[in-house]
Structures are given as structure tokens and as C-alpha cells.
Amino acid sequence: MGVGMNAGGAGAGGGGGVELFPMESLLALEEHSLNMALFRALGLVLAVKEAMWEELLGRVARGDRQLVRYGWGKNDYSEGASRVLFDGLVEQYRKDVRARVALWHSMVLSGWAYPRQDPLTKAELMEEERLRQDILEARRNAKEEDLEGASRFIRLMVGVKMPDAGSMT
Description:
Elements: E1 2-6, E2 17-22, H1 23-28, H2 31-47, H3 49-62, H4 79-100, H5 102-109, H6 122-141, H7 144-147, H8 152-158
Antiparallel strand pairs: 1-2
Helix pairs in contact: 2-4, 3-4
């Protein structure tokens, strides 16, 4: 058994997938390394959240009954209801991963309790929703060239300039 993907893509429901990382390889890593890799994976998942949402919308539009095992009911096959469920699942995943990452691991072993997260205020919730709407609006209004990746010039500017071997400046 290992970490893998279902034949139809990555799935939270488990079962019959292609093994990406053999469990023996994962168990050979130190726990701190596993926790940091998990934290990095969280960032990658959150980075593609809207792409996952668009894929989910396609499944919702098709009435995909496999969504039932992830919490969809008869009345949840609308965009609004699905967004609420999707955001809830992503938030639960984020909380679960953050509770397991290495930053708190050593403190818990020393007797510290996990920190409690205060609920967001109404103003914070409204700001997050406004930011999400602004991002979606910017996507809708973007030109084709805006959606392309960064130019080579920008990628070079972000890179690290190494000194020449012959010069010692």
C-alpha cells in the first residue's frame, strides 16, 4: 500500500489506485521530513483550488453520483450548494493538514497543546469573500496574454545570478 491516485485522478475516497510512492519509501523518511512534505503538499493543493472547483462544477453539471460518497445529497447538485460543500471540504483538509505538520509536532511531544484557532470575524469573512470575488472578476476580464505564463525576461529576473568563476567581485 502507498500514496496514490485513483484511475480517474486523485481521490479522497480511496480504493483501486495507482501507487505513486511505495509505502516503504515513505516510512524510511524521518517524521519531520514527512510533516514538511505534507505542509508543502497543502500549499500545492490550495494553489489549484479553483481548478479543482471548475472540475467539480463539470461533475455537478453531469450529475455525477460518485459525489454522494463525499457528502453530496439530492439537493446539493447546484452551483451554490456545491460551492459551500467544496469550500467546507477544502477548509477541513487545510485544518487537518495544519494540525499534523512539523511546526507543532515537537511542541506536542513536549506537552504543549495544539493552539486553538479563533473563528473569523464577520469582517474577516467578508474580506475573504470580497477578495475571492475580485480574483474571479479579474480572471473573467483577463486578456489572453494576461493568462499566459511569465515571460522569459521575468523568469530570469527572479532567478539567481551566479558570479563568474574567474571574477571575484
